[in-house]
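Dear Dr. H.,

I hope your travels went smoothly. While you were away I took the liberty of generating a structure for the chain from your last submission, since the lab meeting agenda had it listed for discussion. I wanted you to have the full record in hand beforehand rather than looking at slides cold. The sequence, exactly as received, is reproduced here:
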Amino acid sequence: MAATRLWCNKELVAKGFVVDFSVHRSKDGRNPRAHVLYTLRRIDEHGFGLKPSTEGKSYGRGAVGKGAISDLDHWRESWAKTENDALEAAGSASRFDHRSPVEQGIDRLPEPKIRVSAINMQRLGKLLDPA
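The corresponding predicted structure, in token form, is as follows:
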């Protein structure tokens, strides 16, 4: 949770956005994750800033919509650094890489998507219909 708070403060709160985040694990205790929600409008001593325009201009926030890819790429890289710093501080040898397998030079096909309902059926011992 401390790493998530640190990242949110550095990347969003410091730029004038309000953030709400939640950290939890899956029911089996594995797969820890964080969900981060933040405002689309800055907030300062004068109140809320302007909403993003319909042309995708966000008045000081950066791009919105498809133009926000550079923001997402930056956040992924920034989160990977924050997460890896926390893993190192905890004495873990595990590391996280924000890049896609292709960008990492890994030559493999993506694994098929298995829906939650199918996973639950497998846990109950029900066979999946391949058709």
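Two observations you may find useful: The beta strands are 19-24, 33-38, 43-44, 47-48. The longest strand covers residues 19-24.

With kind regards,
E. W.
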